[in-house]
């Protein structure tokens, strides 16, 4: 049996919205997933989220008065100060919407906003792979490279909401460095993202490298990071090279994070995780990241910093949103009363 | 007239020890500089520091009971948890000494330890070029490249005391990247330190580049970063190229800091500052850093992040030590009492 205060976490994605209710220790009391229905716009979605919250509470015999704070995780850049969305590319009908106020009005509860990658990082920090450390960095590998940095319990959001953009560490200053879509050169994301994996593989194939990928592409399959991972697992040399090279690039970025943040753990997650800790390929991949770190970092952090995969999977976002809501609530409780 | 609590800051260097007494607003009430007398060892130095503290207090009609906390800044890595020196290369007789306990025993006051670059960063954050921001990064250019990171009022010391080592951000992952003395490749320090400036200049001269530096070196002068700066100011093309190239490398490191920490300001200091804000060369240098940032960073932080020189000079260390002492004192005062 658990008692209030409870915390809701809402993780908005392009397809689904995940909603979880947790207690003070992060135990999930209820969890629902609803469709985003992006084209219906944010006001409609927020109304459906609020209805869902009330249903979830009623199901376990509680009301919104038992909820201390709600954490709302959103993709892309958000205007945290004003509680508004900006221009999330996967939510084209949601631009510049006062989403915090909307959810507060629908629920009567205090809402705190966070970027979804930052929320996922906080989830792993509170309940997942970073839970035994004071500081942690998450790197998420997907279409791009995202991240989240927690220093001594505080999520690094930055003075202009550009903190924790770990995919945009520069790993190569040279004029021939790879480009991100904006044309800027040398960013980690230009090397280690899913997009970069596909690009690097295509370049190698065009240069005449032999690979079992060709047979699949000739059958009409589209080249994806998953296909590269699958062929690497089957022993395709080029695919394995691409995976290990990705690990090498990531390791370079990890060293810059170790020599600035010096976290207890660097945690790797996202869809492009090569099977993660349970797979031989994932194990080789993370071992290659560690090897690159040993080559470049000071011996003490190289030895002591844990480098591991995430453990919460896609639950990290709503759990982290709950965790940030809980932290905001606790800080508010502890703040000195000023008259 | 100012009233206690007061804070002492002690900044230990290889040649001198700077000691300052400040009030709660950072106003310096007294300042002395004594010789380190390195070869006499740390116990002797700490006794002389303590005697100096008592004299300084007596001179202004106060006693040690008006001092809330003492901040002690030390060069190199320090074991903050255990309050001990490690192996500071410019203090060879001071290895593995329980320096915090020694100063506490000599004074009866609480002592907090910090690395000197970190203390300088905190000084600039509290009273100098970073004083209007919530977060700040300092990069110090000297023999090496040092730094300090403050996030939301907290100095980033890291989980293994390797935080804020900004000279060891990787800016080039390639196998032919420049090396630091340990042989590791691609660190910012291998490109932008005073040592690197001399090395890059030597290489250019050996490759046959014409320069007014040669005339001075032929007269027996030793090539130094200051000589490069002087000749750059006199219009020597190679020297100016070296200075601008240093700015370019620094700019790359600054972008990685902006996309992870996203500070309000990045502050540049140290002995190799090309004359700083008051000199035409210093102005060109920092403008080149800003230009590199604009090329590589997201537009919002590129536009909004202040990039400027330090303003406290060599006082930053003791002032920052005072600031860290004050912060430790205030946090201790605010902490909930547990029975």
Automatic annotation (TrEMBL), chains A, B:
Instruction: State the Gene Ontology terms under molecular function.
Output: kinase activity
Q: State if Mitochondrion is listed as a keyword.
A: no
Q: Which domain of life is it from?
A: Bacteria
In the UniProt record, does the keyword Transferase occur? Answer: yes
Signal peptide start-end: none
- List keywords of the entry alphabetically: Kinase, Transferase
- PANTHER family annotated for this entry? BIFUNCTIONAL UDP-N-ACETYLGLUCOSAMINE 2-EPIMERASE_N-ACETYLMANNOSAMINE KINASE, ROK (REPRESSOR, ORF, KINASE) FAMILY
Query: Family assignment?
Result: Belongs to the ROK (NagC/XylR) family.
Instruction: Give the protein's recorded name.
Output: Glucokinase
Q: Please give the organism.
A: Blastopirellula marina DSM 3645
């Amino acid at each position: 049996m658990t008692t209030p205060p409870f915390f809701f976490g809402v993780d908005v994605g392009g397809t689904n919205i995940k909603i979880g209710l947790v207690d003070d220790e992060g135990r999930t009391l209820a969890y629902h997933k609803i469709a985003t229905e992006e084209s219906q716009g944010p006001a409609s979605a927020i109304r459906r989220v609020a209805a869902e919250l009330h249903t979830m509470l009623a199901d376990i015999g509680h009301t919104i008065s038992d909820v201390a704070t709600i954490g709302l995780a959103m993709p892309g850049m958000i205007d945290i100060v004003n509680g508004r969305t900006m221009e999330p590319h996967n939510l084209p009908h949601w631009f510049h919407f006062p989403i915090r106020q909307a959810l507060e009005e629908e629920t009567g509860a205090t809402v705190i906003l966070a970027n979804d990658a930052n929320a996922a990082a906080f989830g792993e920090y509170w309940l997942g792979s970073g839970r035994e450390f004071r500081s942690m960095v998450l790197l998420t590998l997907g279409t791009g490279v995202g991240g989240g940095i927690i220093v001594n319990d505080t999520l690094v959001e930055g003075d202009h909401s550009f903190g924790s953009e770990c995919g945009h560490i520069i790993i190569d200053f040279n004029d021939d460095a790879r480009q991100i879509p904006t044309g800027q050169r040398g960013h980690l994301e230009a090397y280690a993202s899913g997009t970069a994996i596909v690009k690097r593989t295509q370049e190698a194939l065009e240069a005449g490298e032999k690979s079992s990928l060709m047979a699949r592409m000739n059958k009409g399959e589209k080249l994806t990071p998953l296909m590269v991972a699958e062929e690497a697992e089957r022993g395709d040399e080029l695919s394995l090279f691409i995976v290990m090279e990705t690990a090498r690039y990531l390791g370079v970025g990890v060293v810059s994070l170790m020599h600035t943040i010096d976290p207890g753990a660097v945690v790797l997650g996202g869809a492009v995780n090569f099977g993660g800790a349970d797979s031989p390929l994932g194990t080789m991949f993370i071992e290659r990241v560690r090897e690159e770190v040993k080559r470049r970092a000071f011996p003490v952090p190289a030895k002591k910093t844990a480098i591991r995969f995430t453990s919460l999977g896609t639950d990290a976002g709503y759990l982290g949103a709950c965790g940030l809501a809980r932290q905001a609530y606790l800080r508010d409780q502890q703040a000195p009363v000023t008259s």
